[in-house]
Specification:
heterodimer; A: Glutaredoxin; Rossmann fold; Ubiquitin-like (UB roll); B: alpha+beta; Glutaredoxin
Chain lengths: ~575, ~160
């Protein structure tokens, strides 16, 4: 009989932060009446490594950020004597969060199918097969208003219906787990924390459209997720939830895993299909749409991980329940990955329509070091930077599009006063330029030109004409590119031009970077406060600081590489180095 | 040459055990890179022959995907994550520091073949930004000043 349960967050980031050592130490300690449960992402990445302890007679508590030895001592003391040292923290719950896609993450052991079943897993598949029937499933999904969580927001039910109506005997179900947006990690967390929910949903989708084969297309950068998926598929097969004659019916469905190879464009569904066929991941012309001619020219339905994770809950609890959450046009929740300059880095799942302010300040805990909020970037390289004045906007597919951004996969990167928006735009262009597959000219050459212009501006060689060029070129690329990558690549530039036009202007007219971030536009100088201690001269990597002991030192600007070491090392009580 | 043969044998075995050769190129290249560490032209030719496709097609795929490399990597492969979360937390400076201390350029290998330095696409461990991996082991929330220690840690591991 286990009285106390210890949950250890053992997704990639938990393990990277040292969760494995804590797990091993706790296991070796062999505590009596204690069950140790390795679980997926609890969502509070900032607190990793994170352990949750549930004693039968007490509220759950957390132990966060400790090394194995310390954690073991704190936890053992708490369990055996009930003593709470300063490292035992209260579990404040999820606040305004509503967890549907993440419902099991951090609660179950992802490597045990029994845990998933105990939480009601595979009942949705049973209900679909025995009660709803194929049309019934599609009706429920359509009525729920669930939209694709990969970013574009296409109605999932409609997609399934297209697949269903096609009379080809061979069809495919695909799970797009090529989570390429930098700063988005919800799909990884779902696959690492609750793989069965996605497998079950794929089987339901297969049943609904009449496919007998499902394929995971997953990033090679996610080795742990791949491992857990393999385990989960094997377990589901052993219990007869995958394979031939599932749950005693005539429905057959098998799932395999295909690895991506590091190409962002493969998140685009037609490029993904080419990659699955072993080709270069270049997008295809549409129409024909994948639901008509997809993988190996067969009808194919492709959904993203988070979309699938919602399906079992929608089937079990019904369309009305799902519609009661979120907004009218975007029902349900969305998982956001909060990162960047924010205190509580991690995953939050909130009803659609929640404001950015709630997400940043209530769930995210605001910005660290008392810095001022400048912008929040949503939608990854396809999205835009949203300034302070839109922070009270409720987030859904439509609202983000109206201000030139997009939902994307749900990455949210918070930026503060030290981030230069021109440089951020350049960073994204650098990414899309690198990741452009090169098939169509506007994307291949246009984005390279955009990048060149931004390079000019951030190195102090820009002119006002360049800003006009950026706008014009950006619009042309959006209008004429073949796939979603090209069509959205100029968004970071256009949105920063729209909301932070002043910053661009200062870069080109005054040759200054207001955020003091662009290296070529800043200078380090030593003021008369200098006491001539010589520390800066000693650490300067290019030896460009000179001066007599106990006398004012100077920086030779020509040799200065703007590394900023002199500013960091100048004694705090002197502060003679300034950056401007 | 003996070890080379055994590597080709492993690859050949993998290809022969495939349920179908149709669409298998990327999976085969993943395996080949695991076996050889990189994908030189000779390995690509071998794959092309075994899968009965043109060498140009194999080369096209190898050069398209950033995960595949035609250059031999160092014994310790340092990957600096360049996702947005890491970028705004100073990953650029970390990458620069590795290159300065090792005398490499991004994508390059040290002369002694010990270290290679690459910029990696977002690995989704944004909670630990800035993050790097060395041979798959994660180092999170690192500072520029940690770089020296990470390098010597591996140098010592090599000498030990």
């Amino acid at each position: 009989m286990h009285n106390t349960k210890i949950y250890i967050g053992m997704a990639t980031c938990g393990i990277a932060a040292g969760a494995q050592a804590i797990h091993d130490a706790l296991t070796a300690a062999d505590l009596q009446n204690v069950e140790i449960i390795p679980t997926g992402c609890i969502g509070m990445c900032y607190a990793e490594p994170l352990v949750e302890i549930k004693k039968p007679d007490a509220d759950p508590v957390f132990v966060s950020g400790l090394g194995a030895e310390e954690a073991l001592k704190t936890i053992t003391d708490y369990i055996t004597t009930g003593k709470k040292d300063e490292n035992i923290l209260p579990n404040k719950g999820y606040g305004k969060q509503v967890r549907i896609a993440l419902r099991n993450c951090g609660i179950i052991n992802p490597e045990k199918i029994e845990d998933y079943i105990a939480e009601g897993g595979y009942t949705a598949l049973r209900k679909s097969l025995t009660e709803l029937g194929r049309e019934g499933v599609i009706e429920v999904i359509k009525a729920s208003g669930l939209r694709g969580r990969g970013g574009a927001g296409f109605p999932t039910g409609l997609k399934w219906e297209f697949g269903y109506k096609n009379n080809e005997p061979k069809k495919y179900i695909i799970c797009n787990a090529d989570e390429g947006d930098p700063g988005a990690f919800m799909d990884r967390s779902i696959l690492e924390g609750d793989p069965h929910s996605v497998i079950e949903a794929m089987a339901i989708a297969g049943y609904a459209i009449g496919a007998d084969e499902g394929i995971f297309y997953i990033r090679a950068e996610y080795p742990l997720a791949v491992e857990r998926l393999k385990t989960a598929i094997c377990q589901a097969e052993n219990l007869g939830h995958l394979g031939e004659g599932i749950m005693g019916t005539s429905f057959n469905f098998k799932i395999s895993i295909s690895l991506g190879a590091g190409a962002f464009v493969c998140g685009e569904e037609t490029a993904l299909l080419n990659s699955l066929e072993g080709k270069r991941g270049e997008p295809r012309l549409r129409p024909p749409f994948p639901a008509q001619k997809g993988l190996w020219d067969k009808p194919t339905v492709n959904n993203n991980v988070e979309t699938y994770a919602n399906i079992p809950a929608v089937i079990t609890r019904g369309a009305d329940w799902f519609r009661s959450i979120g907004t009218e046009k975007s029902p349900g929740t969305k998982v956001f990955a909060l990162a960047g300059k924010i205190n509580n880095v991690g995953l939050v799942e909130v009803p659609m329509g929640t404001t950015l302010r709630e997400i940043v300040y209530e769930m995210g805990g605001g910005l660290p070091h008392g810095k001022a909020f400048k912008a929040i970037q949503t939608g990854g390289p396809s999205g835009g930077c949203i300034p302070d004045r839109h922070i009270d906007m409720g987030v859904d597919y439509e609202s983000l599009a109206t201000i030139g951004s997009m939902m994307g996969s749900g990455g949210m990167i918070v930026m503060d006063e030290d981030d230069c928006m021109v440089n951020i735009a350049k960073f994204y262009l650098d990414f899309t330029m690198e990741e452009s597959c090169g098939k169509c000219t506007p994307c291949r050459i246009g984005n390279t030109r955009l990048h060149e212009i931004l390079e000019k501006i951030t190195t102090g060689c820009g002119t006002e004409d360049d800003i006009t060029q950026l706008k014009q070129l950006g619009k042309v690329i959006k209008d004429t590119s073949l796939c979603g990558l090209g069509m959205s690549a100029p968004n970071p530039v256009l949105s920063t031009l729209n909301f932070f036009a002043d910053e661009y202007t200062v870069h080109v007219t005054d040759k200054k970077c207001p955020a003091l971030s662009c290296k070529d536009l800043i200078t380090y100088t030593i003021t008369s406060k200098c006491i001539g201690c010589g520390i800066c001269a000693k650490i300067c990597p290019t030896n460009c600081i000179t001066g007599e002991p106990k006398k004012l030192h100077t920086i030779n600007q020509q040799n200065c590489i703007k590394c900023g070491e002199c500013l960091i090392k100048c004694p705090a009580k002197v502060q003679a180095v300034i950056k401007e | 040459m003996v070890s080379l043969t055994s590597e080709y044998k492993r690859l050949e075995e993998f290809i022969e055990n495939l349920p179908t050769k149709k669409g298998a190129l990327i999976a085969v290249l993943h395996h080949a890179q695991e076996v050889f560490g990189y994908l030189p032209v000779e390995v690509q030719d071998f794959v092309a022959e075994k899968l009965e496709i043109s060498a140009a097609k194999v080369y096209g795929v190898v050069t398209f995907y950033s995960f595949f490399t035609m250059q031999k990597k160092g014994q310790f492969r340092i990957n600096v994550c360049m996702g947005t979360a890491c970028f705004v937390k100073g990953a650029e400076g970390i990458l620069e520091e590795f290159n300065t201390l090792l005398g490499t350029e991004t994508g390059g290998v040290t002369e002694d073949g010990l270290f290679s330095v690459d910029a990696l696409r977002c690995i989704g461990a944004c909670g630990l930004a800035p993050v790097i991996t060395v041979n798959g082991k994660y180092y999170g929330r690192i500072k520029k000043s940690d770089v020296k220690g990470i390098i010597s840690e591996h140098k010592e591991a090599k000498n030990a």
